[in-house]
Amino acid sequence: MAQLNFYVPDDTEAEVRRRAKAQGVSISAYLAALLKEELGAQNNWPTGFFENVVGSWQGDFPDIDDHPPQERDWTR
Predict the structure, then answer these.
(1) Based on C-alpha coordinates, what's the Rg of the chain?
(2) 33-58 b/e with 16+ CB inside 10 Å = b?
(3) What string of pLDDT tens digits covers the 76 residues of the chain?
(4) Are 12 and 22 in contact (CB under 8 A)?
């Protein structure tokens, strides 16, 4: 696991310490969670991606009674 060193203003350090303590985690764990959340947001699918690729449902879903039961081969 990589170790990062950086500088922050004193008031920022105090707030980070306060929030980490309030969550009951170390400063390192608190900052790692913040970074993971922020960077993870960049790995999401773009808005509308699936609609553009596979389309989207139009209209209401059919009732189950609208489709007759199908025979199944359960011996497989």
Answers:
(1) 25
(2) eeeeeeeeeeeeeeeeeeeeeeeeee
(3) 788 898 999 999 999 999 999 999 999 999 999 988 888 766 677 788 777 887 777 777 767 666 666 777 776 6
(4) no
DSSP assignment string, 52-68: HHH----SPPPPGGGS-
Are 31 and 13 in contact, with CB atoms under 8 Å apart?
Answer: no
The pair of three-digit structure tokens given for residue 5, joined into one six-digit string = 């060193």
For residues 40 and 49, the answer to whether their CB atoms sit within 8 Å is no
Strand residue runs (E) in 1-76: none
Whether the pTM exceeds 0.90: the reply is: no
